[in-house]
Each structure stands twice: as structure tokens, then as C-alpha cells.
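INTERNAL AUDIT FORM
Audit reference: QA-55
Scope: verify that the stored structure record matches its stored sequence.
Auditor: D.O.
Record contents follow.
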Amino acid sequence: MTVRPRPPAPAGGRHAYGCICPAIRNQEPTVTLVPGEGDWIFSVAAPPVLDAIRGPHRPVPLALTPGTAVALDGGVASDPRRPDDRQGAGMPVPPQRDPSRAREVITRWLTDRFPADGTPTVGSLSTPAETGFSGETLLCDATWDHRGRSLVRPLAVRVAPAGHRLLPESPWHRQVRLQELLAGTDVPVARIHGSEPSGDLLGAPFVVMERIEGRVPGDIPSYHRSGWLAELPPADRAQVWNGGLRVMARLHRLDPDALDLSFLDDPAHGAAGIGRQFGECLAHLEFYGVQDDPVVARAADWLRKHRPEEPDPPRLLWGDARIGNIIYSGHTPVALLDWEMATLGAPESDLAWYLFTDRYLSEGLGLPRLPGLPSRQETVAAYASLLGRPLRDLTFYEVFSAFRFSLITSRVTRLMTGTGIHWPGGRTPYVQSAALLVRALDEADEGAS
């Protein structure tokens, strides 16, 4: 690969974290070394996209101290000193499609969907800095010419996962329907312009929605290591965290019956609530690749023995409730993202996931938690106040979150290994999360003794 100095950043600007892309048909990418704050930051300009490539590669961000060896394994760079940088909850999406063809498809679809507006010009496609295996997101601007005046609509095109499924059961139509319903509530979500249920056009169903401007706390690198949240004063970090709690409480206050969320009430694995969530996990251990894992078996036994009653009617749950799934404008949440794991159950389940995913991105990766972020005790007190009742059995839900997170990271590890990613010393996302699951089980047992 070719290494060259990077041009200086614009006045007042900063270069974002770069990446390493694989070579394309034996054409080397151009790799740029940039001196950063104590690190050398890689960025890559890949060769022109060829017909063999299905789409933009979602690369692995790396930060390397000068003198650190970079091991290229299968065309992907790894940093043996910082393997944790790529072990966040959200992992890069492998290549999905040819961007030129995708632009043509989106242009035709918009023309057919909005015939009165004429044919738009769709700009170049990009992908968010943070994305995951749960789906592919394409960002673009569509411009219509109205009597000599341009109408520009910033769009986000969310494509259903095809070959790289993170979850065994997540019907696409349920996610789209839920987001459409939430647009009529006080829970902030992106407004949907339309959806395509078939896979005939892009190879998978997709939904076209408004693009919400803002910023999202990063998973890779963890927001506890670097990024805009780490750069905020501690008091402002607390505003970001508590803002997420407030908007999540709005979701939990919604009446599922009034919204007619019966389409989420699938009794295949039991009645709505923790019984169904746990049952879905147990039914798909082989899918996640943990059917013979002793840590998972220990956790499953513990959860069976300690499963609580859920006396209240089930509420709408976000499922993947974390600040990394919130778009912020300043310190204010302006959109909740990713509804693949949405279900019905107790609000404690969402709060436990909110807490555990943050714990994984700090303690689980060997990072100190950012000062200013409210503690578990402060978060529990704040959320009880928002719900208007004491929280019940939160320790159980935290163990369940650790259990479910370990299943998902096992799946992520298998998918990423299949794309050529390898972790020095075997410190895979699953190994890290399983260690935290053991810790959560030990803490729960100590608390009960």
C-alpha cells in the first residue's frame, strides 16, 4: 500500500478518525498517515469502485502510536496494542452493493413514489460513521427542480440486512410499522417517506426516511475513549445521558393498546415480557453459536431460577436502548434509532440494557468511564422518578442484558471473522462480553447472599 503525508486540516477544523480498507482487485488503497493527539491516524482513499464490489466498505477505525506495527490480515489492518477499538456494540457492515446502481434504483423509486415532483437528482451516497450489522444505511440528498427552484430533501435509506443478519427474528415490516406509528407521538423518530417491501430493487427491503442532522455517541472507538462526548465538560455529558433517559421514559409511557401494537405481540416464545425475550434467546442459541458455551449455560440457569413476576401491563420497549442509538442536536435527543429489537415488556429491561451497554463500552473494554456521566445509582433514582414508581428486579434485567449482549457479540464475532477480521490474542467482542457476563453473575450472587 502507498503511504503519503496527509494535507493539513482546514483552518479551525479537525480530521476525523480514518480507516483501513481492503485492496480492491489487487489495486492498492492509498493510506495516509496523519499525526494526531499522540496518535497517528490512518485514512484511506480506495481505488475507483469496480464491478466486482457491491458497495462501500465499512472500515475499522484505528488509532496507532508512532512506531506501532500495523498487521494487514486479509487486507484489514489490526493494531495489536488497541484491539478494543473495534469491539464496540455496533460493528461495521460488510460491503453490500454497487453505489452507482443503488443511486439509479433510489432515483427510479423516488420518481415512481412522487410522480408529481418529477425525476430528482440523487447525489453521491455515503454511510454514517457509526453503523452495524443490523442493517445498512445510505445517506444522500435528492434534489427536485420546481419551476426553476431547487427543492432538496436530505434522505436516509435504511436497507434490511440480507446475508449478514445479527438477529434471528426481526421482521422488517414490524420495524417500519412501529416507526410510522411513533412519528405521531412525542417520541422523536425520523419521518418515513415510504418503504419498499420487496427485495427486487436493492436486494432487500428498504425504507426511505428524512435524514436527521446531529451527532451520535460512537461505539468504535468507544465514546469513553474519544469523540465529541469525551470532549464535552462533565456537566454537559450528564445532560446527554439524562436526555436519553427522559426520551426513553416518554416511550415507556405510551399506551400499547392505543397505538395498536398487537403486531409486536408474537406469542411463539411465550407471553409478552421477559418470558418471551428469554425464550427467544434460548430458541436460537445455535444461531448465535453459543449452544455449548459454559458461560452462557451458567447464565441461562441463573435466569431460569431468578425470573421475576412482571405485575404491570407490558409497555413498548425500544430493545436496543442506548445513547449510541440516539441522534443529538447539541445535548438534546432529536431521534431514536434502530427498532430491530423492539418488543413489549417491563421498562426495567430497557434501562438495564442502557446501563449494561455503557458498562461494556467502558469497563468491558478496559476503559475508565467518562467523568460526569451519572452513576448506576443516580440513573436508577432518576428513572424511577421519570416512571413514577420504584424499579423492580433491576439486577435480574442487568444479568439478562449481559446474557443477551453476549449472544449478540458471539454472532458479531462470527460474522466479522468471516469478513477477514482477526483479534490479536483472541480478544474478540464475545470474549470481552462473556467476561463481563461472568462478573455480572458473580455480583448478582454476592448481592443475594
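Auditor finding: record pair retrieved intact. The domain at 228-448 is CATH 3.90.1200.10 (Aminoglycoside 3'-phosphotransferase; Chain: A, domain 2).
Action required: none
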